[in-house]
Write a structure and sequence with these properties.
The chain folds into 3 domains: 75 residues, Dipeptide-binding Protein, domain 1; 220 residues, Dipeptide-binding Protein, domain 3 (Roll), CATH 3.10.105; 132 residues, no CATH class. The protein has 18 helices and 20 strands. A 5-stranded mixed sheet has the order 10-9-11-8-12. A 3-stranded mixed sheet has the order 1-2-20, covered by helices on one side. A 3-stranded antiparallel sheet has the order 3-4-5, with no helix packed on it. 41% of the residues are buried.
């Protein structure tokens, strides 16, 4: 892996990913002065940058493999090449993906497994049977209907958990295509919202395994606001709004007809069940719903991303920062035909664009929260979506398995088989800070508002990529470079002010509290601060500066 690969990958993600532009828009350019140095030059402060650099969101691609021709049609897409603990072996469409151990993985002795086989099973009942019979031993994002969970929980050979999804912020909603009448009339959208019984969806359709959703941010988000425009179930209000919009009932009681799509083979407890419910429920206010099933995800994605839909059940993840997961659905500049999970509904509000731009560059957590509160109040009034519920996610696995990834990124965390904890030494004080390993632990995020807690932020990845953080006291490393002392500021503020940060390669013996920078020197938990100067100098690889 080289610095050129880093620069290439960031450009690919920025220009092709559904939320690449919001995520990396502030990155003006990536400079590569040598093969092991990548310098990210920002056009503005970007408090979400460290979360965006997580391996789950920016997996580094080899430029020499993907650099020729359109990346969408590159043959390597079906035989991927990466730098992780496993190597690609085989992909059989509709059957499985096989990976084998990468003997050249940079962590000595890792991984512990020789082979991984990912079975492709679309039918929920077939998936459940495969788990019960031991054919599948680890099932994250379990494609199991909630009505069958009792079988799992009562099975002594299986374990069940809903941990490991905290970083995602899964949302479900009814999406209106605002380009098509009568959905371009907010009164029609609000009438539909007043006809939806969210309590029925949560308690009956999903058996109480989730919570209702009234706005764009999930309950776990630190940016979520309670000051929303809400739409309680009230059929009289819904009928009145439709009358005011000029949609009178015809002789058969129908006002107009709309086609409703939903995501197939995903969010199975919310998508199709809610669509079926809405067909009967919206009939009560004179809307004839025509259900249109898609045979597969690509068909649905093509319809929605090319703006051919009227209504669709949809859902996005908030991810650790709204810049990453939320902005994409509301920025008027992110209407990209053919790109799913962008602004496919056609929403455009210049004031919302301004608020999201301000929130995206604001380093102060309290001010960011205030900006996002205004945003949520506006969009719940404009109502491009009728939010319904958070998607219930859970993991089922063989009880004999140990070391299941249960950090906030769960199965998407790139971590080694260990206790799930890592050690981070504060440059200025020499003290050891502890935190969950894995990219989803939000190293520069809203859950860590104070400088002290920023210093205890988790490693972006177990055993690799620890960010050297400036402490509240003058850091020897900063002084040696002639930079002013940070004086009480956390990393989030320092990034915005233009301080430089180095990312070091660590060798982490998980669970032992031993960190080896570049494999050349070991630092035990109570090592003196003075020895940390050598740590900074020894880190010859993987430097990222701003």
């Amino acid at each position: 892996m080289t610095a050129a690969d880093v620069a290439f990958t960031l450009d690919i993600v920025k220009n092709n990913h559904p939320f690449g532009a919001p995520m990396f828009g502030p990155v003006d350019r990536v400079e590569t002065p040598d093969a092991h140095t990548a310098i990210l030059r920002l056009s503005q402060p970007h408090p979400a940058l460290m979360a965006a650099l997580s391996p789950a969101l920016l997996p580094i691609l080899p430029k020499h493999v993907y650099g020729e021709g359109p990346i969408q049609t590159n043959p390597a897409n079906l035989a991927p090449i990466g730098s992780g603990p496993f190597k690609f072996v085989e992909y059989r469409p509709g059957e499985h993906v096989v990976l084998e151990r990468n003997d050249r993985f940079f962590l000595e002795g890792r991984p512990h497994l020789d082979k991984l086989v990912f079975k492709i099973i679309k039918d929920p009942m077939a998936t459940l049977l495969a788990v019960e019979h031991g054919e599948v031993r680890y099932l994250p994002f379990a494609n199991i209907r909630v009505r069958d969970l009792s079988r799992v929980k009562d099975n002594p050979a299986l374990s069940f958990t809903q941990r490991g999804y905290e970083a995602f912020g899964t949302t479900n909603y009814l999406e209106f295509n605002l380009r098509k009448p009568p959905l371009d009339d907010v009164r029609v959208r609000k009438a539909i919202a007043h006809a939806i019984d969210k309590g029925f969806i949560v308690d009956k359709l999903i058996s109480g395994q989730t919570v209702r959703l009234d706005g764009p941010m999930a309950q776990a988000s630190p940016f979520r606001s309670d000051d929303l425009v809400r739409y309680p179930l009230h059929l009289d209000t819904a009928n009145r709004l439709l009358d005011e919009a000029g949609h009178k009932r015809q002789a058969d009681g129908t006002r107009f007809s709309l086609t409703l799509d939903w995501i197939p083979d995903a969010n199975i407890n919310s998508q199709e069940p809610t669509a079926q419910y809405l067909k009967s429920q919206l009939k009560k206010i004179g809307i004839d719903i025509v259900l249109r099933a898609s045979p597969d995800l690509p068909t649905w994605a093509s319809r929605v991303s090319n703006w051919e839909h009227e209504l669709t059940m949809n859902g996005i993840w908030n991810y650790p920062d709204p810049v990453i997961g939320t902005h994409r659905a509301f920025l008027s500049t992110n209407q990209k035909k053919g790109v799913i999970w962008s602004n496919t509904e056609g929403y455009s509000n210049p004031h919302v664009d301004e608020l999201l731009a301000a929130a995206g560059r604001e380093p102060d957590l309290a001010k960011r929260k205030a900006i996002y509160a205004k945003f949520q109040k506006i969009v719940t009034d404009d109502l491009p979506f009728a939010w319904t519920n958070e998607e219930p996610l859970f993991t089922i696995y063989d009880r004999k398995l140990d070391g299941i990834p249960l950090s906030v990124w769960g199965a998407l965390a790139r971590s080694t088989r260990c206790s799930g904890r890592a050690e981070l030494i504060d440059r200025g004080s020499g003290r050891v800070r502890r935190g969950l390993a894995g990219p989803g632990s939000h190293p520069i995020g809203p859950r860590l508002p104070s400088p002290a807690s920023l210093l205890s932020a988790p490693l972006p990845r177990c055993g690799r990529g620890a960010v050297s953080r400036a402490s509240r006291s003058p850091s020897p490393a900063l002084r040696e470079r002639g930079d002013p002392a940070p004086r009480g500021r956390g990393v989030r503020a320092l990034f915005s002010m233009g301080y430089r940060f180095r990312v070091h390669r660590w060798r982490n013996e998980c669970g032992r509290g031993v960190i080896r920078p570049g494999g050349s020197r070991a630092f035990r938990p109570n090592s003196p601060a003075a020895s940390l100067r050598g740590l900074v100098r020894d880190a010859g690889n993987g430097i990222i500066r701003h």
